[in-house]
Amino acid sequence: MPWHNIHGHDDVVEQFRRALARGRLASSFLFAGPAGIGKRTFAVKLAQALLCRERPAHALDPCDECPACTQVAAGTHPDLQVVAKPKDKASIPLELLIGERERRGREGLCRNIALKPFMGGRKIAVIDDADYLPAEGANCLLKTLEEPPPRSVLILISTSPAKQLPTIRSRCQLIRFQPLPADTVAELLLARNLVDDAAEARRLAAHGGGSLHLALELADGELGSFRNTLLQRLGDPVFDSVRLAKAVSAFVDEAGKQPAARRDRLRRVVGFATEFYRELLQVQSGAAPSKDAELRRFVGPAAEADRGDGLRVASSLERCLEAAKQIDRNANQSTLIETWLDDLAGM
C-alpha cells in the first residue's frame, strides 16, 4: 500500500522513519526530482506526521483526524508555512521570505520559523518552486540554514540540486525523488478521474516521463500535436531552423501574455527536444528504448540515418540542456529560440 496515498516514494518514507527513530532528523532538506511527481504533497504529509497530536512523529503515520492534522490539510496550521512562486511572478518575492520593505525582518518565513511553536512542538516551513529563489532571497535563508531555530524543519522543493546556490546545497540534506513508474502514472490518471479511457491513460503515462503533471499537460491535444511535429522535424537529416523557430515562437506566444506562462511553455518545448536526443543517444549506445511508442517512432529512423555519430547527438543534448538553463536565466525568448535551433541544425 502506498504511504497515505502518495505513490512511488516508499524509500523516502523509510529514510525519514530511520532518521526519526534515531532521533537524528535534520533541520533543512532539499527535495529534488522532476516536476509533478509528488514532492510538495510529500512535504505537506511529512509536516502533518511531525505535527500530529495523536501519534508519535517517529511512526510517520498521521491520524488525519486530530485538530493538528485537519489544520495542516486545510493550510491553516500556525506552525506550518508554505511559500511558493505566484503564477504571475518570475521568481519568489523577497517579501514572502523577510517581509515588506517597511516591515523588513519583522514578518515573512525567516522570522516565522524562528518563533516558538504555537501548538505543534515544531515549526515547519516549505518553500515550493525553490528553483525560482532569487539570489537575494537565497542569501536571506543562509542565517536560518546556518543557525536553525530549535525544533524547526525547513524544506526546499526543487527539480535539481544544480539549480540551487552552492551555499544552499551545502546546508541542506539532499532527498532525491525518482520519477513515477509509467504504470503508477496511468493508475493515478484513472483513479483521480483525470482520464476516462485506460488506453489513453497508458499513452499519456508513457509520454509523461514519470510526471503526472506532464502527462496531464499532454492530454491537451494541442501540446501533444506540437510535440509530434517538433520530434518529426528534429528527426529529419536536415531541417529548416528558421521555419521551425517561427513555429516554436508562435506556439510559445499562444500560452498567453504573461511572461511566466510563455517561459513554462518554452521550457516544455525544449524538454521535448531533450527527450528526443537523450533517447537517440540511448538507442545508439544499445540501451533499452523507452516505453514511449511515439518517441520511439521518431527516434528509430533518426538512429538508422545517424548511426554511430554519438558525439553529434551528445552535443545536441548538451545544447538543449543549456537552452533550458537560459530560459531559467530569463534570456530573450526570440533570440534563444533562434540560436538554439540554429545550433541544432548546424550540428
Brief summary of the model shown:
The chain has 347 residues and is of the alpha/beta class. The protein is 53% helix and 7% strand. The chain contains 16 helices and five strands.
SS class: alpha/beta
SS field, number of helical segments:
16
CATH homologous superfamily label of the largest domain: P-loop containing nucleotide triphosphate hydrolases
* Beta-strand content: 5-15%
- Domain count: the total is 2
User: How many strands?
Assistant: 5
Mean pLDDT: 89
Uncertain residue segments: none
Strand order of the largest sheet: 2-3-4-1-5
Rg, alpha carbons: 22 Å
Main attributes of the structure:
single chain, about 350 residues, alpha/beta, Rossmann fold, 2 domains, five-stranded parallel β-sheet, 16 helices, 5 strands, globular
Q: What would you note in describing this structure?
A:
- With 347 residues, the chain is an alpha/beta fold.
- It folds into two domains: 167 residues, Rossmann fold (3-Layer(aba) Sandwich); 127 residues.
- The protein has 16 helices and five strands.
- A five-stranded parallel β-sheet has the order 2-3-4-1-5, with helices on one face.
- Helix 6 links the parallel strand 3 and strand 4.
- Helix 12 crosses helix 13, helix 12 packs antiparallel against helix 16 and helix 13 crosses helix 14.
- It is globular, with a radius of gyration of 22 Å.
- The model has no long low-confidence stretch (mean pLDDT 89).
Write the layout of secondary structure elements.
Blueprint: H1 10-21, E1 28-32, H2 39-51, H3 67-74, E2 80-83, H4 95-98, H5 109-112, E3 123-127, H6 135-146, E4 152-158, H7 166-169, E5 173-176, H8 182-191, H9 198-207, H10 212-218, H11 221-235, H12 241-253, H13 259-284, H14 293-305, H15 310-328, H16 333-346
Parallel strand pairs: 1-4, 1-5, 2-3, 3-4
Helix pairs in contact: 2-3, 8-9, 9-10, 11-13, 11-14, 12-13, 12-16, 13-14, 13-15, 15-16
